[in-house]
């Protein structure tokens, strides 16, 4: 099987990249291990802010549907429940579904494998009822299952505060948001104000020392402040916000050079302003290029799609060059407004 561009990952960045490739006259194949397109968007009920028209005002799951539908009449093939498992010496890529294996020979590759949540271990963290904040969101918004009735959230990122707000709106009591530093990690003022409006208690300079229970979590013990004051909460849900990091397995298989940038989530592939990795013709997009907001993820997907077209055609059109510069300007505006250290890290990562 051959295609102009093979896209690994069918989330926001992958869908955006596929649309750019296809509307510029090239074929694409999207490979995703899940049963449907959309990635993390599928369980996000909040409005994805800072999106361009025609995607403004859409909630995450709605945005996923609109983007997937936009590909229906374009030369884009979707391979769901497929995994990329290897690279052959001739440059073809091995794709597996169940026990069946096939080769795809692409003219270019875009890796948009997203991010994974980082572990936040402490005594008792493996008890049933202790889960990542993303897992709780998935249960609530995608599976329509209440993960618990009374929760403590360990961590205070924008994502943690947003999901805490969603839990309260569903009737789940959030006993406390626990942050080990002296201030909230969240930077989105709208989300912070929403949590204050919902009167969600916040404990700063605090951390969990143990979760206990018989068969599932029933109590969590925290210490707070320089005097190490002890707090105990009866809960049936503990949500862990250990941060996120780029998913690198595919990039490692494809022999991409990596570098460490803590502000962007840790290890990630090296890339240029075209989002081209150290491997010629292989581009990265989305959270795989550094942890950021969904609006920024979308723009990296478009940049990667435009750059893949340039690579295929061995030239850069004035229209694509202008579009790419506008996207970088928007990306700069988005990240400097909320995450200035992240934007500087991205500039450093690209060599200035």
Q: Care to count the β-strands? A: 19
Query: Beta-strand level of the residues, as a percent range?
Result: 25-35%
Briefly note the structural class of the backbone: alpha/beta
How confident is the prediction overall: mean pLDDT?
94
**The biggest beta sheet, please?**
7 strands, mixed
The helix fraction, in percent, is: 25-40%
| Helix and strand sequence | EHEHEEEEEEHEHEHEEEEEEHEEEHHH
Q: Which overall shape is indicated by the principal axes computed on the Cα atoms?
A: globular
CA(first)-CA(last) distance: 39 Å
Tally of contiguous helical segments? 9
Low-confidence stretches are: none
User: Over all CA atoms, what is the radius of gyration?
Assistant: 21 Å
Compose a concise summary of this entry.
The chain has 352 residues and is of the alpha/beta class. The protein has helices at 12-23, 60-70, 133-142, 158-169, 189-197, 249-253, 294-313, 318-338, 340-349, and strands at 2-8, 28-32, 76-80, 83-87, 93-97, 100-111, 115-117, 130-132, 150-154, 173-179, 202-204, 206-212, 219-224, 229-234, 237-240, 244-246, 258-261, 266-269, 282-284.
